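Re: Re: ligand-bound prediction request (bumping)

Still looking for help on this. To restate: I need the protein modeled with adenosine-5'-triphosphate bound, output as structure tokens. Inputs repeated here so nobody has to scroll up.
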Amino acid sequence: MSLVTCKDLSKTYGSTTALSHINLDIEEGHIIGLLGPNGSGKTTLIKILNGLLTPSAGEVYIKEAPVGTESKKVISYLPDHTYLGGGMRVNEIIDFFKDFYEDFEPERAYDMLEKLQIDPKQKLKTMSKGTKEKVQLILVMSRRADLYILDEPIAGVDPAARDYILNTIITNYDEHASILISTHLIADIENILDQVIFIKNGQIVKDASVESIREEEGMSIDALFREVFRC
Ligand SMILES: Nc1ncnc2c1ncn2[C@@H]1O[C@H](COP(=O)(O)OP(=O)(O)OP(=O)(O)O)[C@@H](O)[C@H]1O
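Reply:
Sorry for the wait, this slipped through. Here it is.
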């Protein structure tokens, strides 16, 4: 089943066109990189998929239904900024997630916290930026969702922890789920991707499997990105 379908989707902010006639299909069982330069429309697209922005034109379906309460239940979303109240302890946030999301599995969250040596009793506001990001990613990946949408998941995380986190991402998701990851850290992440979407000035300029790109272009995704988007 198609997890995401966008038909002729456009978004404008006043006179700025952020997305222009996007047609997109995301199927089950893929890890997809949403890649593009600054201001190309990645966050706008992600916010529309999560119902935080409404399209100016076109249609969006999540599992064949319009974006709404039901689609929010099947998408686990990591935004590009901190959204959790700083005064809470991690274990309190875990309790909150457990009440809020039927598909949240606390034991997975505690297991990942332990591996990353994060104390569940610690308050968020006393944590470093990178640790806070790790906590948020752990929470998002501890749901049994159909679609994970991660907006810049590893930007503030140190390189040693990135490997663990990426490994956690690929080992913790169900084979019927898909993950859409927006990032500028392509070299770090490309080994776990099997599909990439290149977006430029609000338009999709490439939507292909990583395998076909490596075969046809004979280069890494990082190298191709630098070529396509050379300034
Ligand atoms: N609230 C807003 N009001 C007006 N213009 C906006 C707003 N949000 C985004 N834009 C514009 O829409 C375009 C797409 O922005 P968007 O944040 O989606 O890009 P992005 O690919 O996520 O960028 P980055 O990689 O820098 O995070 C840009 O031209 C941006 O200036």
